[in-house]
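Archive entry: two folds, one per protein. Generate the first.
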Amino acid sequence: MRGKSLSLFGVILLIALFFLQSCQSKPEVKVLQRYFHAVRMGDRTTMGTMALEPISPEFTNWEITATSEEIVEPFVLPELNNKELELKKQVEESVIITMNAKDEVDDALFEMENARSREARRAAQRKVDDLQKKYDETRARHNQVQVDYSNAKDKAAREEKVTSFSLGAGEVPNIRELSGNVHSKEVEVRVALVSGDVKNYKCVLKRYDLRDETLNLHRRGMWKIFRFEVLN
């Protein structure tokens, strides 16, 4: 009797583990079920907590037609933050260099305007031309550094936004100092609309699994929809 009880317990345990593994390996099913239920109910609050850019098609039914393998990549926000800070420093240094180059041009122009002889004016003009060329090159480099800094700043801000969205933990002061991985999957969904048309979407799902080393805290985000792409 004892042997049969242990055997039955083993079977139940295996079934439970299989069910748990199945749920864990297909998070997109649960996420999309909840999302489209919220769409059907017109629950914009729930939709907004599950999708970064929600869509709300009027549909009769939907189904998953394809699912990619889960990809795990390093969390890049700390790297993006360092790049932003590095370029910010370059911009600040470039401002001083560019202003000094402009001052040199202005001083040379002043010398040329006050030159008394033709030869002195010619020499002053050559100096102005050389310094103006140097300033133009310096200014062009400064403009490029400003563009690079603006792009890096925007990229870091976008990554911070999606990280915060996945964590769903409100404001995290040291969010740019966390470490960990980002899990992602792509899912294709066929949606039959009330109008009779069919829309196919590619949904990009992500989950941020991070760690706060300062507080020794595990910040495990939920699977959420980060993008809907219309395929047809």
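Generate the second and append.
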Amino acid sequence: MLNAVLNRKTQGILRQDYAGEFAGYEDSLTATVFERLFYLSQPRLEAIFDRLLQDSGLDGRAADLGALQDYKFWPIWSTKEPDIYVHFERADLVVEAKRWDGSQQQYFDQWAGEIQAWHWQHSGRRLLLLAIGGLPEYDVHHVLALKRKAMESEAFIHHGLQTADFDLLAASWRQFALIIREQHENPGLTASDKFILKDMLSGLRLHDINTAEQRSFSQLYDDLTRLALDISDSAQAAFRPNSNKGYFDAVWLQRTAAFRPIALSHFKGA
């Protein structure tokens, strides 16, 4: 279905003028990306979760979770409905996804209710809560501070939740896209993993998530310098004087004035 949407082959299912309309759909984004995530090989899945654990300041590795055994989108536990429930061999993962990075859409009362509902269904196992999107900050220090604030919140106190009841992972959709891009560029990928990661990146872009490589300031400076030189060379070539004339071309001099440095007299002030 993803490739039918990308190539506008959904006549009779979707309108043909839906370009850009997927950007705001949280559930479509979540399903498109995560259902493909679960198709990856175990080594590739572990590599992605290693990054999520590391970026959230948690010790241990994804291999500690064990093999993926089952998953379910939008399970209903009493009155609670998390976005995804993931069952690993030695731990469970609950995903709460919000569409927008950089804005506050994640709420402690929703987390507390879903954690409590999970305990009623699956007590005795390790639980990880992944909050993707819906937060103003995602750095390690913010994630660690966010869990402390959650434990002090009225909702967590009301449900009697303890610090050891769950581990918190948090990532922006942009961070997640960079992790997927990094994995896609791994030269040791199997063909099937490469195709799945390619589709994940396409699904992210369909929902207006930036998947471009993250560049440093020095790289951007070099790029802009090369671009400026290319523009200058192209412009001067386009306006080069006619060598067949055999004499000075005053019109060319006037047309290319904008591409030459201007000497300014020193300003001495009053």
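Annotation attached to the second fold: The radius of gyration is 26 Å. The first strand starts at residue 68 and ends at 73.
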